[in-house]
UniProtKB/TrEMBL annotation:
It comes from Ktedonobacter robiniae. Residues 68-80 have a biased composition (Basic residues). This is Helix-turn-helix domain-containing protein. The lineage of its organism: Bacteria, Bacillati, Chloroflexota, Ktedonobacteria, Ktedonobacterales. Residues 66-86 are annotated as: Disordered.
Length: 86
């Protein structure tokens, strides 16, 4: 299980985008238990606990999201069809 900040680094997005994916249902998550929070704090993976709790994202979901196409048009790809002549 990864915390949201770790998932954001792996996906190459900001943590707000990860939260948006969680809210839309595209990325599954759950809240950490007290034992998990204690372990995360002792390992230094989180600095503190917000009042809303810590969300954990399964590693398999992050790996699956890495292979999804990104938003917008890919850089370096022409928008004109190959058959069209200007």
């Amino acid at each position: 299980m990864l915390v949201v900040a770790e998932a954001a680094v792996l996906l190459g997005v900001k943590s707000g985008r990860v939260h948006a994916l969680i809210e839309s249902g595209a990325l599954p998550s759950r809240f950490a238990t007290r034992d998990e929070i204690a372990q995360l704090l002792s390992l230094g993976r989180v600095r503190g606990v917000p009042g809303t709790g810590i969300r954990l994202v399964p590693r398999y979901a992050v790996e699956a999201a890495q292979h999804r196409p990104g938003r917008g048009w890919r850089k370096g790809r022409s928008r004109k069809p190959k058959d069209a002549q200007a």
